[in-house]
Amino acid sequence: MQISQKQGNKDFAIMLNAYDCPAMLVTPQYQILATNKHYLESYGAIDQSQKAYCYKVSHANDVPCDQAGETCPLSLASASDKKERVLHIHHSPHGKEHIDIEILPILNDKGEVKFFIELLKSVTQANPKIGNNEMVGASPAFNQLVENITRVAPTEASVLLVGETGSGKEIAAAAVHLASNRKEHPMVILECSGLTETLFESELFGHIKGAFTGALYNKQGLVEVAHGGTLFLDEIGDVPYELQIKLLRLIETGTYRPVGSRETKRSDFRLICATNQDIIGMVERGEFRRDLYYRINVFPIHIPSLKERKQDIPLLTKTILQRIDQSGQYSVTDCAISLLKKHDFMGNIRELRNILSRALVLSNTPIIDHHVIKTCLEIDRKISGDSGSTTDLKNNELNYLRRLIDSVDGDKDKAAALAGISTRSLYRKIQ
Ligand SMILES: Nc1ncnc2c1ncn2[C@@H]1O[C@H](COP(=O)(O)OP(=O)(O)OP(=O)(O)O)[C@@H](O)[C@H]1O
């Protein structure tokens, strides 16, 4: 616990220790009067030789956040006289961090705000700097996403993640699960597209031996595995209409029957669904059950496309590069990043990842420059049939694919996956 000697306010400062997270006592003039023991453990002592202001300590700013064009929790709580909550990126001894801030105004008997208690909860599923597995980003669209995830995660509400392909729906589902009270239990994923009725049912509910031809053993369903944890249904819009009623029954009652069994089982899971389709349009066209839509759509979260968060491209590029090449020897030039920023990423972050995987193969040096990125982007356009078919481009593509195959020791399935094309197309192209 740290108390500003000049201000005293010891009683308030002692109270801060009752919070199980870092907390500080702040005046309406932004001055930090005290911090609790969790604050000290997480962020260290504040220099009290001069007045410590929250905007200086947490943001390294010289003016309050609202004067720097950001939301200021203090001014929000002053205006409402109520508890407020915002997501901020703080500077800390560990670098930049997403922090979920809760701020409580303390009023005197005249109803004037005397102090604020600021609670700071670190959001570990998001990272505004290069990170290992978490979602990274620092743009307003990304911060809004993190704020939504942080709010809904501790509740039991069903979440519907809506976003374009490759925009990060699965990683967002994992972030919700990891920030929930169910994080010690599994998150089970079912990819709903392309499943026949029998397969869907037996995957989800399990089956007993002899339930259908080929059912040689009893098989546990994913719903059972998800007990206590989270069930993530990816591409929910692809569940055939006839099967939607079974899903509805499961969600409404928490009960199900393994295929071929008369026994009714029960599972307690939190539901997260994802789609890249216009699911409301599907409801209106009668392709998706309205009752099921209302069940899965308790808390919808929009996953921004890369187009909506172009300013995250430099950070994402560096992070993804580090994740695909753990030797850490590769770097990207500013010119290459500018080129990436101009690209229209229809496949979003997955496309960015593919392009960077290709760049590693094509680059002759550990410095990935704009020439390499340009070639990777041109190959992409060529593969999707969207550009002039110059001989150069064809040769580039051929060279690239050959080097890609060499780099994975001749494994053509792996090379095709890296190039984002089918193995058949790969064979056709290298003939
Ligand atoms: N914010 C992020 N920070 C770092 N990597 C990310 C982020 N968002 C997505 N990715 C990466 O981008 C790739 C695609 O993400 P993900 O699989 O979650 O997308 P998706 O929307 O579920 O895709 P699909 O629509 O095909 O199911 C993954 O490699 C994932 O790790």
Automatic annotation (TrEMBL):
Domain Sigma-54 factor interaction: 135-361
Stretches of the chain forming a coiled coil according to its record: none
Keywords: ATP-binding, Nucleotide-binding
InterPro entries, alphabetized: AAA+_ATPase, AAA_lid_NorR, Homeodomain-like_sf, P-loop_NTPase, Sigma_54_int, Sigma_54_int_dom_ATP-bd_2
UniProt cross-references to PROSITE patterns, sorted A to Z: SIGMA54_INTERACT_2, SIGMA54_INTERACT_4
Pfam families listed in its UniProt record: AAA_lid_14, Sigma54_activat
Highest taxon listed in the record's lineage: Bacteria
The protein's name in its UniProt record: Sigma-54-dependent Fis family transcriptional regulator
Organism listed in the record: Shewanella saliphila
